[in-house]
Amino acid sequence: MTIREPVTTRPAGRPRSEKAEKAIVEATLDLIADGMGISELSIEAIAARAGVGKTTIYRRWSNKEDLVVDALATLKAPLPPLAGLSVRDDLIALVDVIRLEGGRSTRSRCIMNVVMGEADRHPRLTERFFKRAVEPRRRAMEDVLARGVATGELDPDLDVEVGMALLSGAMVWYTKWGPAGDLPADLAERVVDRVLTGLLPRP
Question: How far apart are CA 43 and CA 54, in angstroms?
Answer without folding.
Answer: 7
